[in-house]
Amino acid sequence: MSDERPADERHVPVLLQRCLDLLAPALAAEGAVMVDSTLGMGGHTEGVLTAFPHVRVIGLDRDTQALELAGRRLAPFGDRFVGVHAVYDAIRDVLDELGIPAVQGVLMDLGVSSLQLDEVDRGFSYAQDAPLDMRMDATRGRTAADVLNTYEERDLARILRVYGEERFAPRIARNVVAARAKAPLQRTGELVDIIRASIPAANRKVGGHPAKRTFQALRIEVNGELVTLERAVPESIEALSVGGRIVVEAYQSLEDRIVKQAFAAGATTSAPPDLPVVPETHTPYLRLVTRGAEEADDAELALNPRSASVRLRAAERLRPTPSHMLPRTNEPSRPTQPARTSGKNRRRTA
């Protein structure tokens, strides 16, 4: 079942004004460019393009449906917006293709999007029965059904324990393997029933829906979210010009930890602690703009209940990253898709 409403009626961007305030000093210069690394339905980008009439935004998303909806929403801004079908760890490849050496802002709004949750057939929600898909890019890759039906029991348990912090991971994994021996799992409703049967009744009454942690873990595994984020945050920092800012909204502890560690590495001297004078090459190249992680206040929660778990962090580039601190990329970024022009709004889609 598909929601036919336009994007601006379906999506309220989380902490929009706070994001704009944090990005404002970096986007003040004429000709400033920002990358919205998780475009979604375009709410944050619309806010930026409206608040800063001189700014251009490059919007990345692996979800072709999101690119289509955001493209319609942002069409009035003409060539100030460019949408690209890409995962955010490919930020450097995208900017190289567009001939942009550095940008003044990067915004990342992590996790599953409103679009993906609201589209029942995508299989992200445990609240309604749907195919076990969970791919953010529905054009490629393994599905949640593939993971559940082919992974060994110990690997399923590890995924649920690590990515979902699920206490009953071994029991759920064991019951999944037993169920698939009779017939392959195909529907989210089947999985929810297995989870319910795997968790003691007393534990099902606390901590929200009993399937929440398992669905989170499967989504992370299907989309490679954490390994991608580990590459994407350092690469995004490297895309910033001096004075540029990066703002990241995370929604669960594993994501937030990766962001926190990357920011801390840049905001801390890399010199040994016993040196009497810190060499310039070891001074911090980032400044933390937020004190720890900021959360949504009561007004934001009333406006947007999905902001309940948000953790926002921001940092500013002080100088180029010293060579010994540059990110090491162990595998190539995922390629962007071929360009296709549509009216004034150039969009790269599959």
From TrEMBL:
Subcellular location: Cytoplasm
Pfam family, one: Methyltransf_5
Membrane-spanning residues: none
GO CC list: cytoplasm
SUPFAM superfamilies listed in its UniProt record: Putative methyltransferase TM0872, insert domain, S-adenosyl-L-methionine-dependent methyltransferases
Keywords carried by this UniProt record: Cytoplasm, Methyltransferase, rRNA processing, S-adenosyl-L-methionine, Transferase
One GO molecular-function entry: rRNA (cytosine-N4-)-methyltransferase activity
Compositional bias segments (type: Polar residues): 330-342
InterPro entries tied to this protein: RsmH, SAM-dep_MeTrfase_MraW_recog, SAM-dependent_MTases_sf
EC number: 2.1.1.199
Residues annotated to bind S-adenosyl-L-methionine: 42-44, 61, 88, 109, 116
Any GO BP: rRNA base methylation
Region spans: Disordered: 311-350
Reactions this protein catalyses: cytidine(1402) in 16S rRNA + S-adenosyl-L-methionine = N(4)-methylcytidine(1402) in 16S rRNA + S-adenosyl-L-homocysteine + H(+)
Entry superkingdom: Bacteria
Entry's family note: Belongs to the methyltransferase superfamily. RsmH family.
Protein purpose: Specifically methylates the N4 position of cytidine in position 1402 (C1402) of 16S rRNA.
UniProt name for this protein: Ribosomal RNA small subunit methyltransferase H
Gene: rsmH
